[in-house]
Design goal:
Layout lengths: L1 H19 L7 H14 L3 H9 L5 H8 L7 H8 L2 H13 L1 H11 L3 H12 L8 E2 H11 L4 H18 L7 E2 L12 H7 L15 H14 L9 E6 L16 E2 L8 E3 L8 E9 L2 E7 L1 H7 L5 H21 L2
Antiparallel strand pairs: 1-2, 3-5, 3-7, 4-6, 6-7
Helix pairs in contact: 5-14, 6-8, 6-14, 7-12, 8-12, 8-14, 9-10, 10-11, 13-14
């Protein structure tokens, strides 16, 4: 009996032990990270130690990132975001912020509906910006998630620089389990590189200011190669088996439109001959559906490197636009 109890306690400790830790300050890898911030970026050792003593690592964060929604098949993923309520809220958000959205579209070339859909998918238009302390999320993934430790150590570095630059308490900001923040869910490096003061009030605020969130999303897309007025995605029809050799996890379009017919692929509408596309396959309950992704579709995947995510954003944007034009514009 003692053996069984001991074994059960051990299992519980392994699963939830990182939640029970009071401090990570004595870990060698944490000490090395802190020292690097002191040497490379001029942080004060005592102040940074004080910050890290308050950090709590979380098993739930590791669990969440290990089972993302993007692992679902398309027919289960799509209904998460293509809901009537999310479409209606998108129309309301557009109507409420139409001046800023029109300004962003004109300045950056990114359609208003794409900006709205990104914000809709990420946080339901700012209604769900996350419940985790960002510093806890980033530290957990930097020091207790080896699969992507390098990436999250860099994000933790950016986060500490960001809060120092903005004069913010490192423990004050909440976000997603992966450390994404604010209305558009920018990670720390994205905030430092792409966030903009879109309303020119002297402060870049993606947490409470929709104008800055709108401008920042548009700027992110522009910097990553968005081309104004160009196609995004188009449904495709398949004949034969030649198309199979075009399927891969790579999302960048490399196939010239003029070569589609040779692979038994046709589109529902005429396509510009000079464009390149990527054949996309989406899993449905009773087979697959196929799309052609253009360069602008690829740019959406730079926000989240997932075919499913980008297609959900695109289709949500189209639904929002249809309803907005019909009822508001």
């Amino acid at each position: 009996m003692f053996s069984l109890i001991k074994k059960t306690v051990l299992i519980l400790f392994v699963v939830s032990g990182i939640d029970a830790q009071a401090s990570i300050i004595d870990r060698d890898d944490v000490k090395a990270f802190i020292n690097s911030m002191v040497v490379e970026h001029g942080f004060e050792l005592d102040a940074l130690n004080a910050v890290f003593k308050r950090i709590k690592l979380s098993a739930s964060i590791v669990k969440a990132i290990s089972s993302p929604a993007e692992a679902l098949p398309w027919y289960k993923y799509r209904p998460i975001f293509l809901k009537t309520n999310r479409i209606n809220l998108g129309v309301e958000f557009w109507a409420k912020h139409k001046i800023d959205l029109a300004k962003a579209e004109k300045q950056y070339g990114v359609p208003a509906e794409i900006i709205v859909a990104i914000i809709g998918v990420e946080t339901r238009y700012g209604k769900n910006v996350g419940k985790y302390k960002v510093i806890n999320s980033l530290a957990t993934l930097a020091f207790n998630y080896p699969a992507r430790a390098g990436f999250f150590k860099k994000e933790l570095q950016h986060y500490l620089l960001l809060v120092r630059e903005q004069g913010i308490d490192p423990h004050a900001i909440k976000g997603s389990y992966a450390g994404a923040m604010g209305i558009p869910q920018f990670i720390s490096s994205s905030y430092r590189h792409y966030a903009v003061d879109f309303d020119n009030d002297g402060l870049i605020d993606i947490w409470k200011n929709p104008a800055d969130a709108i401008g920042s999303v548009a700027n992110y897309f522009k910097v990553h190669g968005w081309k104004a007025g160009r196609m995004i995605a188009e449904p495709a029809h398949i004949k034969g088996r030649m198309y199979i050799q075009l399927l891969s996890n790579e999302l960048k379009p490399e196939l010239p439109v003029v070569d589609l017919a040779g692979f038994g692929i046709t589109a529902e509408n005429d396509l510009p001959a000079g464009e390149k596309v990527k054949l996309l396959e989406l899993e449905n309950a009773n087979g697959s559906e196929y799309w052609l992704g253009f360069e602008n579709f690829y740019v959406i995947t730079r926000y989240n490197h997932s075919l499913l995510y980008a297609m959900a954003v695109y289709q949500l944007a189209m639904e929002i636009r249809l309803k907005y034009v019909a009822e508001v514009a």
